[in-house]
């Protein structure tokens, strides 16, 4: 029997539908929408770069529109979310804690995120730190002074910071809230007093199966090779799992233009005949699930993307923190943005269109509205566009007031 045939456009729309990125939000967001969006994605990656909005806030804004940014920390502080290593450091729905517990119980497999030799060397000091938290309550890294003479630097962590991060990776500490986006750590047994590994923990095999299920639902439509990266699974039985899912009807095999054999999650079957039209325009974080797998972004969206903030300035092709531009189901451009908070200006340092993108009045209107919405959400009063592509140079104003 021949497989359903899908165009690349249909495949993109189905993926964006699963991610909640196909249509613009139809109403003002609520606190419940924040949790629903994270559950839909399964994972909300954390990054601290603050050139514009920090990544997790931007990922939510791209899906929800304007919302109260305190809601994310409220969800963490209430226990609706927890932090741990998943795709990378992520906010994760609390009901998925059992899926990651096996990683905490064997943290040495997480590479640089856990240093067993450090934990052995500093046993006494780490014990004293845990006792301090037991007696005095949650702590931040900033509560502890760096040793005299320690050099500054990206990875020049003071000893207590290393202690806290290793204890976090081993699951002995949990992040109970963020203050000025700094982690606040408390004892796991105080955060989850009823947790019992013997009764609640899943085997690694069980956890991996559920992580693959979460990934399939979040991706909606996917190639087999895209599935394991969502949770950074290195030894996942993807082929056998997909064979079982096809038999059980959890996914359907489809043939996609240029991609070949793909899989469609059963929840999207009603859209197979008539996928809703893509109407959404948004700026994406470099750590948005739609683009965090650079190979997937290239294969599905023909969007060749890399984050260049760690690349020396002279070697950057585009810019420090370049945001992909989603427009009506396709990735049509990228822009290098910076929020000038004191001046209340959103500065677009440069804007690039992807090859072959047609500049219509509808595209210009959508982009202006998307930039204005984003700027207002960031507290800007003005949008300034510095460098534009030739196709926009004489058709788009270089700035406007909000």
Can you describe this structure?
This protein has 402 residues and is of the alpha+beta class. It contains 15 helices and 15 strands. Helix 5 crosses helix 11. The model has no long low-confidence stretch (mean pLDDT 93).
Tell me roughly what share of residues is in helical segments.
Answer: 25-40%
Mean pLDDT: 93
Q: Secondary-structure element order, as H and E? A: EHHEHHEEHHHHEEHHHEHEEEHEEEHEHE
Radius of gyration: 22 Å
Q: What percentage of the residues does DSSP assign to strands (E)?
A: 15-25%
Largest sheet: 6 strands, mixed
Distance between the termini: 56 Å
The low-pLDDT segments are: none
Query: What spatial form do the alpha-carbon principal axes imply?
Result: globular
- What is the oligomeric state here? single chain
Spatially, the strands of the biggest sheet line up as: 10-11-12-13-14-15
User: Structural class of the helices, strands and pairings?
Assistant: alpha+beta
List the helices and strands and how they pair.
Blueprint (H helix, E strand, L loop, with lengths): L4 E2 L1 H12 L11 H11 L2 E2 L9 H10 L5 H8 L3 E5 L3 E5 L3 H9 L10 H6 L1 H14 L22 H11 L3 E7 L2 E6 H4 L5 H4 L3 H16 L1 E2 L15 H11 L2 E6 L3 E6 L15 E3 L10 H8 L20 E6 L2 E11 L4 E9 L7 H17 L4 E6 L2 H4 L5 E3 L1
Parallel strand pairs: 1-8, 13-14
Antiparallel strand pairs: 2-4, 3-4, 5-6, 7-9, 8-9, 10-11, 11-12, 12-13, 14-15
Helix pairs in contact: 5-11
Structural features:
4-stranded mixed sheet; single chain; alpha+beta; 6-stranded mixed sheet; 402 residues
Describe what is shown at a glance:
This protein has 402 residues and is of the alpha+beta class. Helix content is 36%, strand content 20%.
């Amino acid at each position: 029997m021949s497989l359903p045939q899908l165009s690349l456009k249909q495949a993109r729309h189905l993926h964006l539908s699963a991610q909640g990125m196909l249509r613009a939000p139809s109403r003002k967001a609520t606190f419940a929408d924040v949790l629903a969006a994270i559950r839909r994605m399964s994972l909300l990656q954390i990054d601290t770069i603050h050139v514009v909005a920090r990544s997790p806030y931007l990922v939510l804004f791209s899906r929800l529109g304007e919302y109260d940014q305190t809601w994310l920390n409220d969800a963490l502080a209430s226990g609706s979310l927890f932090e741990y290593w998943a795709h990378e450091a992520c906010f994760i729905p609390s009901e998925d804690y059992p899926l990651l517990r096996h990683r905490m119980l064997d943290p040495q497999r997480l590479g640089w995120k856990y240093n067993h030799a450090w934990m052995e060397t500093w046993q006494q000091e780490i014990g004293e730190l845990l006792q301090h938290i037991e007696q005095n309550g949650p702590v931040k890294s900033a509560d502890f002074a760096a040793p005299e003479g320690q050099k500054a630097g990206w990875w020049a962590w003071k000893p207590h910071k290393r202690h806290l991060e290793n204890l976090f990776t081993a699951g002995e500490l949990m992040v109970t809230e963020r203050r000025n986006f700094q982690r606040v750590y408390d004892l796991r047994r105080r955060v989850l007093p009823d947790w019992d590994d013997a009764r609640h923990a899943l085997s690694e095999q069980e956890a991996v199966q559920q992580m693959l299920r979460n990934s399939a639902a979040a991706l909606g439509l996917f190639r087999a090779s895209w599935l394991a990266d969502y949770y950074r699974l290195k030894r996942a039985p993807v082929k056998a799992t997909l064979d079982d899912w096809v038999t059980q009807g959890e996914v359907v095999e489809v043939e996609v233009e240029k991609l070949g054999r793909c899989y469609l999650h059963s929840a999207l079957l009603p859209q197979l005949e008539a996928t809703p039209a893509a109407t959404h325009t948004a700026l994406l974080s470099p750590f948005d699930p739609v683009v965090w797998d650079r190979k997937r972004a290239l294969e599905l969206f023909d969007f060749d993307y890399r984050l260049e903030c760690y690349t020396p300035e002279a070697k950057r092709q585009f810019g420090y923190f370049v945001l992909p531009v989603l427009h009506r189901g396709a990735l049509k451009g990228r822009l290098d943005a910076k929020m000038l908070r004191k001046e209340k200006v959103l500065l677009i340092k440069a804007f690039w269109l992807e090859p072959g993108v047609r500049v219509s009045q509808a595209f210009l209107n959508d982009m202006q509205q998307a930039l204005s919405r984003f700027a207002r959400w960031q507290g800007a009063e003005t949008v300034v566009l510095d460098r534009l592509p030739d196709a926009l140079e004489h058709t788009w104003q270089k700035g406007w007031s909000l």
